[in-house]
Amino acid sequence: MTNFAIPTRGEVSENNQAIFDNLQKGLRFVPNLYAYYAKNETALGDYLTFQNRKSTLKAKEREVVNLVTSQINGCRYCQSAHTVLGKMNGFTEEQVIELRKGSASFDPKLDALVKLSASIVENKGRAEEASMQAFFDAGYTEANLIDVVIAVGDKTISNYIHNLAGFAIDFPIAPELEAI
Predict the structure, then answer these.
(1) Tens of pLDDT along 103-150?
(2) I need a labelling partner for 118 at 20 to 30 A (CA). Which of 12, 17, 34, 75 fits?
(3) pLDDT digits over 22-72, tens only?
(4) How does DSSP assign 81-150, residue by residue?
(5) How many helices and strands (H and E) does the chain possess?
(6) How far apart are CA 111 and CA 36, in angstroms?
(7) Angle at the Cα of 160 from the Cα atoms of 158 and 162, rounded to 5 degrees
């Protein structure tokens, strides 16, 4: 696999330099994924706007979608980043691994979200009827369904970027699991 270089602050546009500075202030570093987006004049700002949009899903629920999508898409970078973020949002290491494996026995509502997210990714948007019904039976709404699809799309973009570019993972490496 060809490995693509991550640009430094000095190698990106002024607009992207300002975004780097904001990321540095907020996160204390610029993740390689975000830096890679800065090779394009508008992609980093566009992606961050998309990623940070208001959602009907709670942060913990978005992490469920991120972990499941990244696992199915085989993105080691996003598996690693969202393992960290999942723990920051209250999941234990064991729960993160269970989510990545395709279930949430510790929370029936999240389990329905895991199953629907996996079905959406695996079936390219044509989720199995049973997973859809379980999602709605768990108390989710059509507005939530739209946000799940948007979260899957968001994460798929990042998964594909890393899977194509193969740059270094700058988070603690998540343990390898078999695909869901």
Answers:
(1) 999 999 999 999 999 999 999 999 999 999 999 999 999 999 999 999
(2) 34
(3) 999 999 999 999 999 999 999 999 999 999 999 999 999 999 999 999 999
(4) HHHHHHHHTT--HHHHHHHHHT--TT-HHHHHHHHHHHHHHHTTT---HHHHHHHHHTT--HHHHHHHHH
(5) 9, 0
(6) 33
(7) 70
